[in-house]
Design a protein that fits this description.
Strand order of the largest sheet: 3-2-1-4
Low-confidence stretches: 1-5
Radius of gyration: 44 Å
Structural class: mainly alpha
């Protein structure tokens, strides 16, 4: 019941990260029917192109062996071993092509479905592989039921193909039995090719359906709940609480750095309580006034307090302070639209300095 509820909650498609992690673990969709299909294709190719010569050569060897047994002495252990090696070599020659084709077919089936890769996770011992409960789920779960249906379908198909082939060719089979062995072999080969062609055609349809189903089932198993998607997002982008704390720390560091720069300011523009902008302008160094600090409310009051402690001129201009606060950035020169207004304030500062020098 819990599993059903859990599956119902998995309504979201798998994220790229989950798919990537699953692939890296070697958990890829795999169709067994595709491998069986390529194996039948290999057997068909062997039967059409190689079986006749291989079986003929093997038949000639066995006929010679049976007709002239005196040519093969078996008086000693060495004679028996020699005969065994010769017979084994002849049988090997007959089936080598088939074995090679079967191996190539298996490789093609695997590569076609998924590119080969080494995954250490697949060979790591896991308790789930010997778990009775997990084994029960595999056998009696959805995947096990599908495999059972496919096995029944293949068994039924095999019976139908054999019945059909024998019913169509039984007269040819009976006629072949009274001919010489070589002609009867041709009859058997022809019937085998007909049966294999039918099997391959049906197996192609089964393999295609199983290929599609295996990928569909794989994607279904990878589906995630909304909570899993949120948790993964937190892991990839960071916990929002931690990120908020980091942003707060960054703002505190920036604020402290601004406050240490305020004593270097040439002037501060402020309205009575809400905004303060500290600017630095030295004719020989700066092409335009540079913003050293800006703040609102408590930060603005702190900037003005530091300015007073360091005898930095403070100009109260509500409209200018409000407008500059919205458009200027710390450690950047002021926008050109403020040049004229700020230049007028700088002239006042320099005029006051000149006047103080003359008085002194």
């Amino acid at each position: 019941m819990a599993d059903a509820v859990d599956k119902d909650s998995k309504t979201e498609e798998a994220t790229e990260k989950k798919i990537r992690d699953t692939v890296e673990e070697g958990k890829l969709p795999h169709s067994k029917e595709a491998a069986i299909f390529t194996s039948f294709v290999a057997i068909l190719l062997f039967t059409v192109f190689y079986a006749k010569d291989a079986v003929t050569n093997l038949g000639i060897f066995l006929a010679t062996f049976l007709e002239k047994p005196e040519a093969w002495p078996m008086d000693t252990e060495t004679d028996v071993i020699t005969l065994y090696k010769v017979v084994l070599a002849e049988i090997g020659h007959a089936v080598t092509s088939l074995l090679v084709l079967l191996v190539v077919a298996g490789v093609i089936a695997s590569v076609f479905q998924n590119l080969p890769q080494f995954v250490a996770e697949r060979i790591r011992p896991q308790a789930s592989r010997i778990s009775i409960s997990q084994g029960w789920k595999r056998i009696f779960g959805v995947q096990g039921f599908v495999e059972f249906i496919k096995s029944l379908a293949k068994l039924g198909f095999a019976i139908l193909v054999l019945v059909f082939a024998l019913s169509e060719d039984h007269q040819q089979l009976l006629a072949g039995m009274i001919t010489n062995p070589f002609e009867f072999g041709t009859v058997i080969r022809s019937m085998a090719v007909d049966i294999l062609v039918a099997v391959v055609m049906v197996m192609a349809a089964i393999a295609a359906a199983d290929f599609i189903w295996s990928r569909f089932h794989w994607k279904q198993d990878l589906r995630m709940s909304k909570q899993e998607v949120k948790d993964e997002l937190k892991q990839s982008e960071g916990d929002p609480i931690i990120k908020s704390r980091l942003r707060s720390l960054a703002r505190d560091r920036a604020r402290r750095r601004m406050m240490t720069n305020v004593p270097k300011a040439t002037l501060v523009i402020a309205n009575p309580t809400h905004f303060s902008i500290a600017l630095k302008y030295v004719r020989e160094e700066d092409s335009a006034p540079v913003v050293l600090a800006k703040g609102q409310d408590l930060v603005a009051l702190k900037i003005r307090e530091i300015a007073r402690e360091n005898n930095i001129p403070i100009f109260e201009d509500v409209a200018l302070a409000r407008s500059m606060y919205k458009q200027v950035s710390v450690d950047s020169v002021i926008p050109s639209q403020f040049y004229e207004a700020v230049a007028e304030l700088v002239r006042v500062i320099y005029a006051n300095k000149t006047q103080r020098r003359q008085v002194s």
